[in-house]
Structures are given as C-alpha cells and as structure tokens.
Amino acid sequence: MEVPDPYGDQPLLTSVMTTGYDAVPEKERERLRRYLEAVVAARPAPVHTTVAFNAVYFGYDLGGEGYGGSPLRLDDFPVITFGECAPVLPVGAMVCVATGSDPLYAEIVYREGAHPAVSTHGDVPVWVSGAPAGAKGPGDPGSGAAPRRRELLVPDLHAFGPALSLSPAQLHRLRTRRRWINGDGHVVVDVCYPSQGAARRDDLTAYADHLLTRAREQLLSPFAPVSLAELVGGTRDDDLRAGLLGLLDTVRGVLDSSDALRTWGHYAMTRSSLADCWRDTGPLGGGDLKSLAAAVEHAAIPAQRRHGFTSAVPVYTAVGPRLRGFPGATERLRGPGYAAAVCRANVALADVVQRDSDQGLFENGCWITLDDAFEGGGVWRSHRPGGAEPSGDPLTPAGRGWASTLPAPPEPEPEPEAELDPVDLPLADDASLGPGELLRSDANDVVWRSPLRLAHLIDGWFPLHPDAVRDLDRSQGPCLTLRLELDHADGVLDEKEAVQDVTVELGDDSGRLTGILWPGDFFPGLMLEVRRRLGGPVIRMATTSLQERVRVGDRETGHSYDPRVLTREDVPGSDRHGDSPVGLGPRQLVMRTVRRCGLLTPDGHALMDRSVLPSAVYGRRPARSQAAALESAVAELFAERVLAPALGSRDAWGQPHYPTRDGQPVIPLIAYRSVRQRVIRPWGGTDLAGEGLYGVQFVPGHLRRLRPGCSPSEVQRAAFREHCRRLGKADGWELPYGYTFVTEHTRGH
Questions:
Q1: At residue 460, does pLDDT exceed 90?
Q2: pTM metric for this prediction
Q3: Alpha-carbon dihedral sign for residues 462, 467, 472, 478
C-alpha cells in the first residue's frame, strides 16, 4: 500500500487530531500509521514520539532528503552555543549548533542522564537512581533553584539530507576537537533548568514548551505541510498548547497501536529490526543481550559476613555505560547507533522480566525492576531481599535508590474508623464571581451584562442591576410582574422559553427576577446581556455568539461565557437539578474539588495545593483507602493531561501562591487549565465517523507538492500570502518553488 506524503493532496494531520488519539477516526489513524511506520523503518535511531511528530508536521522526506526535502527555513531554527551550561534541549529539538566555522544542523533524537558518579562499567551509586535534578548527594536534593543536570544528547547530523550534512572529513574534525560533540558524535553538557518543575516535565510537555517558546517561529512556519494555527483555528497560546499536546498524544497513540512497531517508553522501533538484532552474532547482538540480562539478574549477590550472616544489598546497573564493556561495541555505539543499542537492550531486559519472573521476582529469589528510566539510558535494580518487596509494575520506574537515602517519614496518624462522605467547602470567592457589568444607563435604558450562575439555573432566578431596581414601581408592593423576552443567538427556543412572565422581587437594596424557565442548553458561566426599558413592562435578555464553536473541558458552546464561573460551577455533580459531590467516583471528586477550591486565575485556570486535596474533598482527613483512590485518580488525570502538575509556594499563614514567590517553600500543585479548543463543525455538525454532516469533511489549508512541470495559480499565491499574514508574517511570504497552497474547504463523498 502506498505511503502517504505530508505534502500530498490530503494532509496527514487533521483538526480532530488536536483533541487526542481517542477522538481520531480509524481511517485517519491508519493513514498516519502507514507514514510513521515508514519513518521508523527509515531512521537510523529509534523514533521518539516528538521526532515522529516532527516528521509528519515538518514533512520528513522518505526518499533520502529528510527534512532537506521540505521548504523549511533554516533561519527559523534556534542557534545553540554550548558553553559551561547549556539550555534545555528536549528530544525532537531541531537546532543549528554554532561551531565557529561550519554550521551544524541537527535533530536531537535521544537524551539520557550522564551523571559523573556513574562508573564506566554501569555501576550506579544508590542515591543517583531516581535523584532529582541538582541533587548533591544521598538525601540532599540541593537548593532547588535553577538545578543543573549532566545529560547526553544524541543528534542526528544527517536528518536534513546530504546537502546540509557535514562531510566525513568535517565530522571527523569536530569529533577530534571534542568541543561541540565527543568522539562518538554525541553531546555531553550540563543543562541548566529554570526550576525543579521544569526538570520534572515529561518529554511531550517539555517539547511543547520548546516549540511554543524558543522554536515558535519554526512551529508557526507557513512552510509546514499544515500549520498548527490552521488546525486549531487561531494563534492564541492556550489554543496552540492544547492542540499541540493533542497532536503529540495522537502520534504516540498511533505508534503504540502499530503491529509493526515496538516501543520502549516514547521510542519506537520496528519489530523486524529487533528480530535482526537477536539473530546477530556480532557485538551487541543476541548473545550480548542475553549476557546483559543474565548479569542484571545475578548482580545482587549478598555480601558474606561473619558467622554466616548475609546482607541484602541492592545493585543498580545503568544500561548505556554497561553496553560499552562488550568487546567490539565501540563502533556500534557511535552516533544514533547508541540510541538504538540502548533501546534494544531495555526491551530485551523488559521481555526477560515479563517472561521469566512473577512481577519482577525470579526463581533464584532476586527482584529485578526498572528504577530510573532516564539516568544512564535506564537504571535497573537487582535485589535479593530478606522480606517481600513493595508491589507494583516492575517496569514502572520507582526511584527506590534515591528514596532509600531520604529520612524516614513520620509515623502516620491513626486511620479513621470509617470511610467519610464527600463534602463541599464553600466557595471563598463566591461574591467576586461574575459581577454584573453596566454597559449603559441613561434616561431611556439600563443595559448590563452578567454571567449565569448555577444557583440561577437551579432556582430559576436572575439578579437585577441596582439602576434597574431604582426604576421599578415600588408602589405596587414588593412583587410585580414583567414580560421576559429571551434571544438565544443561533439557538432554538420554544415558545414558553422565548417569552415568559416573571416575577420581580424587591428587597431594600436589591432585586431579582424569579420564576424563570431557563432553556435546556444554558449553563453556568453563559454571558447574558440584559436590557430594561425604563418604565416599560418588558425586560430582554440575549446571549452572544462566538466566532466559532469551542470546547472547554467537557463543555462545548458557540456562545460567550465567563471562564471563571464555568470553571467553578460547571463541574461533576452540578447541574440544574442539584449540586452535590455525593455519589461521585474518585476522578470526578478530584476534578470537582480542584475546580471549586483551587486558586482561580482571571482566565479560568484553577490550581490546588496537592497535599490538602483529601481533606478538601472530605472535610477532614479521610480513610487511607479513600486518600489512595484520590491519589491514583490524580495520576490518571495527569497521564491523560486532563489535569497537570505545577509548582507553587506557601506563605507563613499557610496560603498557597502561584507562581512561586521568593523566600517561600515550594509546594506541588494540581492544575486545571481552562483551555478553549476549536470545534470543527462544517455546515452545522459532524457524525461519529469524524466526517461532516452527510459525509462532509473539513480540510484545513495546507501546502501541497506540485507535480513536475506544474506551477501554482496567482489565486493560490495570493491565498498563501494571506495564510502567512494569519500566522503573523506581516510581509506575506511567497510560495516555495514546487508547491501550491490549498485553501481550507469541505469535502464530500
């Protein structure tokens, strides 16, 4: 079957892919899968999720030209100068290394920790395994501010094709100098992180941060096959970030689902290459991999003591340095070959653990687990304990080495006798949420705007602005009747909702409308513009349409809303029939509590002190099983990127702050980000297959490679210049030679 081309008639990336793998129709997944399988087979190193994203987003050519076959501008690449301390370079970063003479264009395809305390034979000091960036020694995490970590980066120096690759003589000269790359063609640098939080970011989040900041020009290049801005419908940072993380999730899901590929973490390899390695009788082939597995399994030989007693001493082995000890391995560990060898070795060890052990426990009584997935290409822990080891997936890095050097935690308080029911703490900012904004008040009208609140929906009322209250005739008593006329922009109302009689209740300083029948698609946070003609019997309310439909969390709307109210009140357990956490599962309780109780930002983000989550859910410290269920739910929501980890600080009065404040202790936060995502609904709707109404599919504007001898029309040249302007290129660039621009359109069967 033919392999699709990123610059082909139909773009490989689609708008629905910006919402993540689960939302993508299988037909679109399959096209992307065929291309990525071909990319993995063609690249010399295992293909990381971010590198796979680069291939499809920046148009990697499979005919031997790599990225050199695309019209990308090299001037958009960040220029890196390696000195005493290097900037953060995540896997996937495309850079120009300033060497003083010949520019060195490279794509970072692999990255690992290179701690100087790890021996050349792969022996790892206990405290190094799982240690945070900047750790100084056993139990000493360092200051935490701007931590440094030594890392080994593997650049692919041939990713941009022969025209932009160094000649063998130039490459030999750079390797000999060992200033920018070492003798193996790798980069070993001390990386400076801006914070501990930045050092702990996962690979996909770190790469998204890189593209949205240092490599923003590259990300928003109009020469990419299809721009992220086209896919998400704008250039707002929140939209770009959400769409980019969605695309990365889609790429990862496609790689994981391929029957032709095998993954180790984020790195994908072809199964055929793994089979070839096992059949190989040379260095780092099947024989050496078997020897490595046996060495790790038998590494934890108890130390003999006097009187026959033995002590159980864990042994930590780093895969990368350990491979260098095999005879003849040096040449195979040069360049991208090192990344391939390390990933194959880890896959071999994982297969042995899964095949020959019971959750890491072998028949000889030795426990084998992965303890650190980053340091030294992967640190494996071998231990022959006197008692049972902690349970868990042996292939999930546990960081037990570092943890074993920390002070013992304080004794836990006694477990509550019974499980508690969840409770709701009152909203501390309730009074400040969604205040009415006066738009006009004169001799004829009072016009104001205010968001709908959950209490309004539940009890059928809405507050009146004080200027409107003053106009009402108090001589008729505390209650009178007005006619309410609702105008729902682009919405459908039945007759009882469009025009209804409502009651005005007047207090000493306030008033409100009661007995309102709210339409079924009204929600907390929906903005209403209210107009009251002074002295008249009518009051009018209207919603306002957005330029396009958006999705915020689980809510999809085409109308203006207040993001703060939406975050606080459109939560699990809350609807127009009631508001209660009772009966919710752990995931829903976490989402509800973070959104209701976290620090609220003007754009609707909520950030909560992670340590107080259980007591915020249950009103006091819950049973251990309930707290564990919440923690597990947080981990799941982090993994799915529904919530995100963040760092804040706590002041002397115990109040959390975000971002961190100088001089205050740093604390972990749980972040809910109220991100607007564009919803593509051609001609009013989509079906379950991901195509438009009646088989109509939205196709974003994209570059297409022309057939030989063809040229773009003047209309397409003008359309591309306008496309560039939308991306912030005010001068309107010209189409690259050999390409045309296909404007966004809908396609039917």
A1: yes
A2: 0.75
A3: positive
pLDDT of 152 above 80: yes
Q: What crossing angle do the helices spanning 337-356 and 286-297 adopt, rounded to 10°?
A: 60
Whether residue 30 contacts residue 50, with contact meaning beta carbons closer than 8 Å, is answered with no
Nearest CA to 100 out of 213, 179, 217, 204 is that of 179
Cα–Cα dist 100/600, whole Å: 49
One-letter amino acid of 33: R
Q: Token pair of 49, please? A: 């999720």
Distance, CA of 656 to CA of 594 (rounded, Å): 13
Q: Which residues on neighbouring strands pair with residue 609, listed in sequence order?
A: 669
Angle made by CA atoms 183, 187, 192, in degrees to the nearest 5: 150
Residue 396 CA: distances (Å) to CA of 53, 130, 360, 393: 25, 12, 11, 5
Sign of CA dihedral 615, 617, 619, 624: negative
SS3 state of residue 16: helix
**What count of Cα atoms within 13 Å lies in the side-chain half-sphere of residue 596?**
24
In sequence order, what DSSP letters do the residues of 224-274 get, joined into one string? SSS-HHHHHTS--HHHHHHHHHHHHHHHHHHHHH-TTEEEETTEEEEHHHH
Extract the runs of DSSP E, i.e. beta strands, from 525-600: 527-533, 538-542, 545-552, 555-559, 574-575, 578-579, 599-600
Pairwise CA distance, residues 271 & 274, whole Å? 5
What's residue 749's pLDDT? 45
Residue 569 burial by CB count (10 A; 0-12/13-18/19+): exposed, middle or buried? buried
Among 383, 318, 300, smallest CA distance to 117 is for 318
Report which residue type is found at 398.
A
Q: What is the DSSP string of 482-498?
A: EEEEEE-TT----HHHH
Provide CB contacts within 8 A for 210, sequence distance 6+: 88, 89, 90, 92, 93
Closest CA to 370 of 383, 380, 362: 380
Residue with tokens 């291939």: 55
Q: Residues 607-627, buried b or exposed e (16+ Cβ, 10 A)?
A: bbbbeebbebbbeeebbeebb
| 96 in Cβ contact with 79 (< 8 Å) | yes
Q: What is the DSSP string of 202-227?
A: -HHHHHHHHHHTTTHHHHT-TTSSS-
Rg of the Cα atoms in the chain: 30
Instruction: Round to whole Å and give the CA distance between 670 and 415.
Output: 25
Percent of the chain at pLDDT > 70 equals 90
Distance CA 201, CA 246 (A): 17
The 3-class SS string of 151-173 reads: EEEEEECCCCCHHHCCCHHHHHH
Asked if residues 581 and 592 have their Cβ atoms less than 8 Å apart, the reply is yes
Query: CA dihedral in degrees (703, 705, 709, 710; nearest 10)?
Result: -30
CA distance 221 to 703: 11
Are residues 347 and 264 in contact, defined by beta-carbon separation less than 8 angstroms? yes
Four-point Cα dihedral 581, 586, 590, 592, nearest 10:
-30
Lowest pLDDT segment from 116-120, 260-264, 360-364, 742-746: 742-746
With both helix axes pointing from N to C terminus, report the angle between 203-212 and 49-58 in degrees, rounded to the nearest 10. Answer: 40
For residue 739, give the H/E element and its range.
strand 739-742
What's the chain's length in residues?
A: 749
